[in-house]
Amino acid sequence: MKKRGFDKKRLPKRSANLGDMDFGTRMKRVIACFCVLLTAPGLAACGKGAQVPQPEPSAALQTTLELPTEIPDDDTLDTSNMKKQSTILVAYFSASGTTEKIAQYAADILEADIYEIVPETPYTQEDLDYNNSSSRANREQSDPSARPAISGEVGDMQNYDTVFLAYPIWHGQAPRIISTFLESYDFSGKTIVPFCTSHSSGIGSSDTNLHSLCPDTAAWRPGERFPAGTTKESVKEWIDNLDISAENTVGSFDFETKTVLLNSGYEMPIMGLGTYSLSDEECARSVSALLEAGGRLIDTAYMYHNEAAVGKAIRESGVPRDEIFVITKLYPNQFANAAEAIDEALQRMGLTYIDLMLLHHPGENDVHAYKAMEQAAADGKIRSAGLSNWYVEELTEFLPQVTVTPALVQNEIHPYYQENDVIPFIQDLGIVVQGWYPLGGRGHTSELLGDETISEIAAAHDVSSAQVILRWNLQKGVGVIPGSGNPEHIRENLDLFGFSLSEEEMERMNALDRGEKHDWY
Ligand SMILES: NC(=O)c1ccc[n+]([C@@H]2O[C@H](COP(=O)([O-])OP(=O)(O)OC[C@H]3O[C@@H](n4cnc5c(N)ncnc54)[C@H](OP(=O)(O)O)[C@@H]3O)[C@@H](O)[C@H]2O)c1
Ligand SMILES: Cc1cc2nc3c(=O)[nH]c(=O)nc-3n(C[C@H](O)[C@H](O)[C@H](O)COP(=O)(O)O)c2cc1C
User: Fold this and answer.
1) pTM above the 0.70 mark?
2) N or C: which end of the chain has fewer CB within 10 A?
3) Quick one: pLDDT at residue 326?
4) Is 449 in the pocket of ligand 2 (CB under 6 A)?
5) Which residues lie with the beta carbon below 6 Å from any ligand 1 atom?
6) Which ligand is in closest contact with the Cα of 283?
7) DSSP at 178
8) Which family does it belong to (predicted)?
């Protein structure tokens, strides 16, 4: 699967702009950072992993282990450092506050993140004296190679599709620090919307002169100039006419393309195939059937012992690798040596990269293992990192200990175990939710597929109960990976877009929740 809008293959390293704070009295804000706190309580406490690979634990285990699903009271839950990521960034440089004000208006209107370009050496009044030909600002403007250093950085530029770039006009041009900014990041495929403030000059060539600093694939919009005292309404009018919105934001399901944009910048199909319990031969047949039928998402795991079969079927399918999205998982007994385990997974699968790697469930060394996935993403071995069987408490403890926000959490979700409180909690963090056991899991499917309400809704749409359940998940923004060794079922499970459930039908499905977990973690 391709990365939306640009081709950079690295996961975002989240780091707040920690640049100096004494540039006037203004505060810098890098809002996009929701997981950089380095001090945090201990590891997730539940579900420590077994020492050897084993099948998905049986339902019999469920009564002996405590379920990690309780949601803490609001006042014990600190989510202050967690915020949904926007795909629009407003980046600005402002020496005396005029541009800052308008940049803030723009960020408010766009619901965008905002980033201040702060000079490493702040400009003094003297530096800004435009009547003095040897003042710092004037010297910089007359030297095309001047690149004033910036304090701090945008830690997650990969996540932004659109960057509004604001600056004051200095002698008809953008201050040289804007050149430093543009040369500090990869703007391939991004849309850049420049705007400026000035005393009286127009934007002139100040914006077009910046184009050569970015790759050709950056899409520049015509710039706009605002005088001091511009109202928020005027800024809004300009933005409305640009027709730029945060559409296709991280996490929202696109029913046309049948994909969702992950916070890592990669697109993932919203439905695919689960391979738990499929033997090598059955697994390879199922993957082939899925790919032939147009499905592009496959979920496997070290613990399923069929990664090699998945890889082989992919390699032999004739479908271009970058059209396929492969998920695999590290089991807790691999966490201590996660870096080696990632390399081994690549070898077993015979693939040069894995689209998404998850930690199978919380366990000893899970933070260490996640950091190994972060490194593997930086090295191009995996594209996105995520978690499985992490709930509210586990996430609340885990996220502050890692740098890169997980792209996805995969948890048990089906009509009898709906996770209605957990799903929005995860989604609000900009993390995509995917459900395992969508049909209840083996041993429970006949109960779910035969459920009276589900069967009635299925009959009304002339589809199967399985399709109703899968569609219900998608309409809740939950991705699905039904397991199947039956090519007919595989085709049926991909055919979810010729009908939709009404609000009333969704409510009837929601009312089936029994909090009935079909596996222990
Ligand atoms: N992260 C985790 O901890 C975790 C845990 C469990 C599972 N998973 C993942 O989630 C996937 C889904 O779970 P699962 O496969 O165990 O359970 P599931 O998808 O809920 O159910 C699979 C069962 O449903 C049947 N089925 C599939 N499509 C059907 C259809 N259209 N009509 C009738 N029956 C149908 C399959 O039979 P046929 O083979 O005959 O089609 C199979 O018996 C797994 O394969 C695995 O990839 C992850
Ligand atoms: C060094 C310098 C050069 C400037 N050159 C121009 C100019 O060529 N044309 C103009 O209209 N304003 C010029 N100005 C005024 C600024 O563009 C204007 O005051 C701007 O709104 C300041 O934005 P800020 O408060 O965000 O720094 C200049 C200001 C400085 C400090």
Assistant:
1) no
2) N
3) 98
4) no
5) 56, 274-276, 299, 360, 388-389, 410, 436-442, 445, 449, 464, 466, 481-486, 489, 492-493
6) 1
7) H
8) Belongs to the aldo/keto reductase family.
Cβ(169) – ligand 2 distance below 6 Å: yes
Phi-psi category of residue 61: left, alpha or beta, with phi > 0 → left and psi -120 to 50 → alpha: alpha
Residue 519 has which token pair? 């596996």
- Residue-wise DSSP of 417-471: B--TTHHHHHHTTT-EEEEESTT--TTTHHHHHT-HHHHHHHHHHTS-HHHHHHH
- Regarding whether 214 and 290 lie in a shared domain, the answer is no
Q: How do residues 472-497 score in pLDDT, each as one tens digit?
A: 999 999 999 999 999 999 999 999 99
- Cα distances (Å, whole numbers) of residue 219 to 85, 179, 212, 485: 22, 17, 12, 45
- Per-residue pLDDT at 82: 43
Q: What would the DSSP string read from start to end of 206-238?
A: TTGGGGGGS-TTSEEPPPEEEETT--HHHHHHH
Task: Check residue 354 and give its pLDDT.
Answer: 98
Domain identity same for 120 and 238: yes
Distance in angstroms (rounded) separating the CA atoms of residues 360 and 302: 9
The answer on pLDDT for 445 being more than 60 is yes
In this structure, which ligand is nearest to the CA of 492? Answer: 1
Number of domains in the chain: 2
Single out the residue in 185, 209, 242 at which a domain terminates. 242
How far does the chain reach from its first CA to its final CA, in angstroms? 29
304 in active site: yes
CA atoms in the 13 A half-sphere facing the CB of 79: 18
Tokens of 39: 């001090």
Q: Which domain holds residue 171?
A: 88-242
Please provide the DSSP assignment of 14-66 as one string. P------S-STTPPP--TT--S----------S-PPPSS--SSPPGGGGGTS-
- Alpha-carbon distance of 485 to 23, in angstroms, equals 62
At 214, the amino acid letter reads C
Asked if residue 184 is part of any domain, the answer here is yes
CATH of the domain at 207: 3.40.50.360
The reply to whether 483 and 411 lie within a common domain is yes
pLDDT one-digit tens code per residue, 62-84: 222 233 333 344 444 444 434 44
Torsion angle of C-alpha atoms 80, 84, 85, 91, degrees rounded to 10: -50
In three-state secondary structure terms, 496 is coil
Going from the Cα of 140 to the center of ligand 2, the distance in angstroms, rounded, reads 14
- What tokens appear for 440 in the block? 């209840």
pLDDT value for 430:
85
How many Cα atoms occupy the beta-carbon half-sphere of 458 within 13 Å?
16
- Which one is catalytic: 304, 370, 437, 521? 304
**367-376 pLDDT tens trace:** 999 999 999 9
Calculate the alpha carbon distances from 21 to 97, 118, 166, 182 in Å.
Answer: 15, 9, 20, 22
State percent of the chain over pLDDT 90: 73
The reported pLDDT for the residue numbered 69 is 36
Task: For the beta carbon of residue 451, count every other beta carbon within 10 angstroms.
Answer: 20
